[in-house]
Amino acid sequence: MSMTMAEKIIARVAGKTAVAPGEIVDADVDVAMSHENAGMVLHHFKTIGADRVWDPDKIVIVFDHRVPAESERTATTHKTIREFVRAQGIKSFYDVNVGICHQVLPEHGHSRPGELLVGTDSHTTTHGAFGCFGTGIGATEMACVWATGRLWLRVPETIRIEVSGEFAPFVGAKDLVLHVIGQLRADGADYKAVEYAGATVEAMTVASRMVLCNLSMEMGAKVAFVAPDDTTLDYVRQRTDKPLQPQLPDPDASYLQVVGVDVGTMRPQIACPHHVDNVKPIDKVGEIRVNQALLGSCTNGRLEDLEVAAGILRGRRVHPETRMLVIPASWAIYAEALERGYLADLVQAGAVIVNSGCGPCLGVHQGVLAPGERCVSSTNRNFQGRMGSPEAEVYLASPAVVAASAVTGRITDPATL
Amino acid sequence: METLLRGRVWTFPDDVNTDVIYPGRYMSILDPAETAKHAFETVYPEFLQRARPGDIIVAGKYFGCGSSREQAATALRYFGIACIVAESFARIYYRNAINLGLPVVTCPGAAAAFKQGHKAEVNLARGRVRNLTTGRELESQPLPPLIQEILSAGGLIPRLKQRRADAKA
Questions:
Q1: Shortest Cα distance from A181 to chain B (angstroms)?
Q2: What residue ranges do the domains of chain A occupy?
Q3: 3-state secondary structure chain B
């Protein structure tokens, strides 16, 4: 029977030879990831009455949402989790100085093709960039995974997105995926799997593929894949000794929908307030002044993002009425950007460099917005009130647009600088 | 399980996301009763002032989209919301609600059939939603057996505890 990537991986983890969309199966989890909400998972885990987690080697915990702790409450949660990790013998624990979970897991070899990775974070779809079935679950469900190593999964239908053409300068993965979300709408892939394919995707770096899979959550995807190839396997093999079991879609697999996109004439895309599917090409956005330009997050805080921003800001100044915040997605990226001089370029231009973490993306700390303020951001959500005041506005854009806008103080196409 | 849920209706539009249901700044709160005090606080403050335990939410499509934060379901469950009826739900919210024992019913046509303050009656086993104010009756898919089983146990954890106790006995 021909299967999509989602179907093949679910069949494997359910111990079946084949599965079909709509089927509900019991699946074995390969990797169970949490961030600070491990505190809530632990709270639920205790109520189950289990003493030990099912497999400490399959649990990964990363502090990233509030790092370093912004309050006594968070500090207490961090402390509780550190003690739990030690008591249970969980070795894959990453404290406040490592980075954002969706960057840290790939960097440390936890995101492996063909495996099932569940995370208590919606953007767990990111790991599909490595051909890994990454999907988000809640804290209660994770507590049951900690106890049993299993969960139920409904086999999703798959949408295939075939991408062709070459990007214009300063246009890339973020613009492509925003365009796709604008077309399919915010619920266009609700409960479904997505596969990105085509020559344009095959030519992409690992970092760019992660942008596609990360943001697919914003059209509701349960999981989003790029089929593993040499680019994927080179990256993963440098980071783990575990035997890999990559799964590829069958050529005659059955898809709910096949969407073709040619990026050749694509301009930078902007998601306007307050919905991620409110997407316009930059020339249709109009004159939008911005108080803050935010470069970072699990979507766009990687080395290639800092590189493009440094290139634009080198020898220029951040606009006097705009604050620019830069948050490298991990400490490995932070260190590399430091060594390559990108951070010097950004700091000399007037940007503020913030510790690797989620920070202002979800309105917790390190750069939230006042009423009436506007932010152009390389993050993943522009929901009303998400980054602070409900009377603030967030425009989502690529790192290049964020950097160009920081210079001019209004949303700007970098090609016009 | 032929439970009939009856309650006063609170209507919400399409695409209500979890940041709106439960702001990120309260995510470090662990106590569910405390969590419930912040439901819809930022964008719909009147909810906290006027909604009552036993009320039923009727929403448009894609209720609960966005972040996987479970507190968006916890807050409504512990506020005492009896049931959420929506045109459609976002995947993770749907799972979270069921896992916490908060009934969710996908019911096309619901948003147009209810106004704020109407009375609703929901039959979970049959997937039937009635507007007791207008008399209008809507049919939807009954919940799959696995989901009904989790809900009638009171959520995923009570069900797991029961199974562990059964396995020991």
A1: 14
A2: 5-261, 269-416
A3: CCCEEEEEEEEECCCCEHHHHCCHHHCCCCCHHHHHCCCCCCCCHHHHHHCCCCCEEEECCCECECCCCCHHHHHHHHHCCCEEEECCECHHHHHHHHHCCCCEEECCCHHHHCCCCCEEEEECCCCEEEECCCCCEEECCCCCHHHHHHHHHCCHHHHHHHHHHHHHC
